[in-house]
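Structure (tokenized):
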């Protein structure tokens, strides 16, 4: 009998440990994955250009985060077609373009432009000129033989293209070569790929060509060359090449910059500010109401049916899905009061949602105060309100503050209640009736609108840190209260 009890106890302990470690593993994996994806990203580019081994021209940038640019991007900048670094760096910096004077003929030939047109777009300076801007948006172009420009970061120029015969990209039997990986180009070069069918193309033998004339006459032919040479042949077919690079995702600049075009470009600085505005307003509305209700229910209300109904109502509100509060806010604040989708509408909706949390935590904190302190104060001649303000509230302070901070954490991570109330403005709200966007809502909209997962993961990491910090502070206050 004893052995059976020991075996049962051992099995039960093993099950408990397995469940505990499984839960711990899931939490660590989830937090670790979100942290990793928030900090780094796979930058995927699909273009006809691949990295060049021997660069005739070098490009230098004042923004150290810009690692690579394509030949076409640099040409369009030199030609005056691109005025902002938005499509290159993701940030709306005005381009300040500088060109080395002695390199001007080489640059003009390399990018198939005239020296005069480049001189109109760029400021022509001497190499090493101290007047070259060292700021975000500044670009300096010179021939590679000039060496490295001081104070600027070298940008990797993708200027190699893979030209192919039209038979390679022609649809035959529902097959054609589409997007190929950069590694596949290396395999083409070293002879590992012998037939275009290996790249989902038609059954054609791969033939390496050494000139455009040979390429145009050879079925299945390809020719690896420089972009400036291919540019002069308008009828040439170029393969689309997929390149993947690991880059930083969450940076200080991303956290400080304002969102552009609904979060497609820029950072989350303005959205973080709006999130704190929303939290501040929500707490300003909810904390006095919640604390007042907790004082009444704990120290004034008499036990009975009415108190039971009120307490049940508070518990019910605490468990109501947040989308219901959002619909209420839409009907009352947005439509009835005519405040439209604005910061005040969203903040009041969140205030209603977090009120039950503040009420319940404040109630428990007030009830935990030793009753003898309250009775002793009354016995010494203090009024009830004086006793509440000078005895009950100060002694329950840690628990009350902990509950408010817990409510802040819930408000920061709320999405559904704000969908119908706060709007989606990405600029810093300039008034109570301006539309805004919180971090949680920004994450939802970024993903649902297909604006990329990288920015959503970076914003998720910031939001997760904010919520973890608020919850940690709330736990610290709760421990102080228990002491």
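Design, position by position:
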């Amino acid at each position: 009998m004893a052995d059976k009890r020991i075996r049962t106890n051992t099995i039960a302990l093993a099950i408990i440990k397995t469940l505990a470690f499984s839960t711990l593993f899931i939490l660590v994996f989830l937090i670790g994955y979100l942290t990793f994806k928030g900090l780094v990203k796979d930058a995927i580019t699909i273009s006809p250009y691949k990295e060049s081994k021997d660069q005739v021209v070098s490009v230098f940038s004042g923004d150290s985060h810009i690692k690579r640019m394509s030949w076409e991007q640099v040409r369009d900048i030199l030609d005056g077609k691109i005025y902002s670094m938005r499509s290159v760096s993701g940030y709306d910096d005005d381009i300040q373009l500088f060109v080395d004077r002695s390199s001007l003929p080489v640059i003009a030939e390399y990018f198939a432009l005239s020296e005069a047109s480049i001189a109109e777009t760029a400021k022509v300076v001497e190499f090493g000129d101290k007047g070259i801007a060292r700021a975000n948006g500044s670009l300096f172009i010179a021939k590679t033989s000039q060496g490295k420009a001081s104070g600027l970061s070298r940008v990797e120029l993708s200027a190699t293209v893979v030209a192919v015969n039209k038979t390679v990209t022609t649809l035959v039997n529902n097959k054609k070569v589409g997007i190929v990986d950069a590694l596949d180009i290396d395999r083409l070069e070293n002879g590992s790929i012998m037939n275009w069918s290996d790249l989902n193309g038609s059954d054609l033998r791969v033939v390496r060509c050494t000139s455009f004339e040979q390429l145009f006459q050879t079925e299945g032919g390809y020719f690896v060359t420089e972009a400036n040479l291919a540019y002069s042949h308008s009828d040439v077919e170029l393969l689309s090449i997929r390149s993947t690079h690991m880059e930083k995702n969450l940076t200080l600049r991303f956290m400080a910059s304002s969102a552009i075009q609904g979060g497609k470009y820029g950072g989350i600085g303005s959205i973080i500010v709006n999130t704190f505005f929303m939290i501040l307003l929500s707490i300003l509305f909810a904390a006095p109401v919640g604390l007042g209700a907790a004082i009444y229910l704990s120290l004034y209300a008499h036990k009975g049916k009415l108190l039971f109904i009120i307490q049940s109502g508070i518990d019910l509100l605490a468990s109501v899905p947040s989308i219901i509060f959002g619909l209420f806010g839409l009907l009352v604040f947005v439509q009835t009061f005519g405040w439209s989708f604005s910061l005040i509408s969203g903040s009041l909706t969140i205030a209603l949602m977090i009120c039950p949390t503040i009420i319940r935590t404040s109630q428990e904190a007030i009830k935990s105060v030793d009753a003898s302190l309250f009775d002793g104060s009354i016995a010494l001649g203090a009024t009830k309100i004086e006793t509440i303000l000078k005895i009950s509230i100060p002694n329950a302070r840690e628990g009350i503050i902990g509950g408010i901070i817990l409510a802040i954490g819930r408000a920061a991570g709320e999405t559904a209640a704000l969908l119908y109330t706060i709007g989606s403005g990405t600029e810093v709200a300039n008034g109570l009736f301006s539309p805004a966007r919180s971090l949680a809502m920004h994450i939802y909209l970024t993903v649902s609108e297909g604006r990329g997962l990288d920015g959503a993961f970076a914003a998720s990491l910031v939001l997760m840190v904010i919520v973890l910090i608020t919850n940690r502070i709330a736990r610290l206050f709760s421990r102080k209260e228990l002491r």
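Reviewer-requested clarification: The domain at 254-482 is CATH 1.10.3720.10 (MetI-like fold). The chain has 20 helices and 15 strands.
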